[in-house]
Amino acid sequence: MSTAATRTAGPDHLWTVDEHLEDILATVRPLEPIELQLLDAQGCVLVEDITVPVSLPPFDNSSMDGYAVRVTDVAGASEEFPAVLTVIGDVAAGQAQPLHVGPGQTARIMTGAPLPPGAEAVVPVEWTDGGLGDGPVTGMRARSQAPEGAGGHVHVYRSAEARAHVRAKGSDVKAGDRALDAGTVLGPPQIALLAAIGRGTVRVRPRPRVVVMSTGSELVQPDEQLGDGQIYDSNSFALTAAARDAGAIAYRVGAVADDAETLRSTIDDQLVRADLMVTTGGVSVGAYDVVKEALSSVADEDEEGAGIDFRKLAMQPGKPQGFGSIGPDHIPLLALPGNPVSSYVSFELFVRPAIRALMGLDDVHRPTTRATLTTDKALTSPKGRRQFLRGTYADGEVTPVGGAGSHLIAALALADALIVVPEDVESVEPGTEVEVVLLG
């Protein structure tokens, strides 16, 4: 990593949130496009405009189970004076029957089946006696239950206008129309559209592979027995889930003990499957902050200025941060604090935008809004720090949850927003309009 901001910042420089994020986004580049099968492309970002090669639907077809008719043959039809038509056969979806509906004739037609020549409309089966002669029916007999076939006569009790219950060719999209724009994230509806127009593969930027690892000899995996002074590793689970939520393919690595050599070896082993690496813990100034110890000296000899830079940010929570690149492929690495709230807030502010940038998205940020602060007393914030408080947002109002402590996981689980208190504000009174980051 060798951006201008990094080169000019001294060791005592207090970075702003915006400077740190700008440095990250100036370094992270979108992944190279690849061709993928449709289902493998789910969650990926298109790199090409998709044009419709064939109209949808490709032919006029019925939107109902019923009878294909000529309008004049059913004009004025009623239950008292039904139109009586000769049934000449069936038209089923997927069958190309050479039927032609002439004067006084009709064909049973199934939903999705092509409108036969001569027919101008479809009357639903509920408007007929179904060929049984006993008044209106609620459904059509299965062909297997009508061994005489589709012959005979049907009574139609209502008239129909031209094109009634007919899906016109191209009424969804027409050949030559643009179906999807480059930059679209492919979800289930978009994949359905691609399949419907005959695309089996598509060119996309792949979902980034993100490796998440936590550090600390005190960390124990869930379902294991806690010893004295130990806690469960929640950060790696939270950040792996957050990376997947952001669109990445995320891999969680079990907690690494406080040993610099072990950490370096683990990172080296994980580089092969990473487009981005995220560590949590060990970035402060303590004697056992092994991430800082292990990575401060790491530099890529192939590129001057590359390596991991550890910084202090003018924010709360999340003051200590690390960012750089590692390995021969210059894999970006973000080193986050170890306190649970600090790591999660840092992820939302810095890692999520990096993942979205790797995907090739133009808008990498969470949506923000303005909201009225609802609280019993004024919020306080340290001077010169941009504070991010957890909150719940609804109907233009935001309410803080929990305190400012960076260890309050239970409060974090209740939050769906971050309340932003600017660097130059030390107190926020109830009823004040504040900026809110919506977490989804």
Q: What key attributes describe this structure?
A:
440 residues, alpha/beta, 7-stranded mixed beta sheet, 29% strand
Give a quick precis of the structure.
The protein contains nine helices and 29 strands.
> What is the number of helical segments per DSSP (H or I, 4+ residues)?
9
Assign the structural class, choosing from mainly alpha, mainly beta, alpha/beta, alpha+beta, or little secondary structure. alpha/beta
Largest sheet: 7 strands, mixed
The backbone outline, from C-alpha atoms, is elongated
Q: Which spans have pLDDT < 50 for at least 5 consecutive residues? A: 1-7, 299-303
Give the termini separation.
31 Å
Helices, strands, pairings?
Layout (H helix, E strand, L loop, with lengths): L3 H5 L5 E2 L1 H11 L6 E4 L7 E2 L3 E2 L9 E2 L3 E4 L1 H4 L8 E9 L13 E5 L11 E4 L28 E4 L9 E2 L10 E3 L7 H9 L4 E5 L3 E7 L3 E2 L10 E2 L2 H12 L2 E8 L3 H11 L5 E5 L9 H6 L12 E6 L1 E2 L3 E7 L4 E6 L3 H20 L8 E6 L5 E2 L5 E9 L2 E4 L8 H6 L2 E5 L5 E2 L4 E6 L2
Parallel strand pairs: 1-19, 7-8, 14-17, 14-18, 15-16, 18-22, 20-25, 23-26
Antiparallel strand pairs: 2-13, 3-13, 4-12, 5-11, 6-8, 6-9, 7-10, 19-21, 21-22, 23-29, 24-28, 25-26, 25-27, 27-29
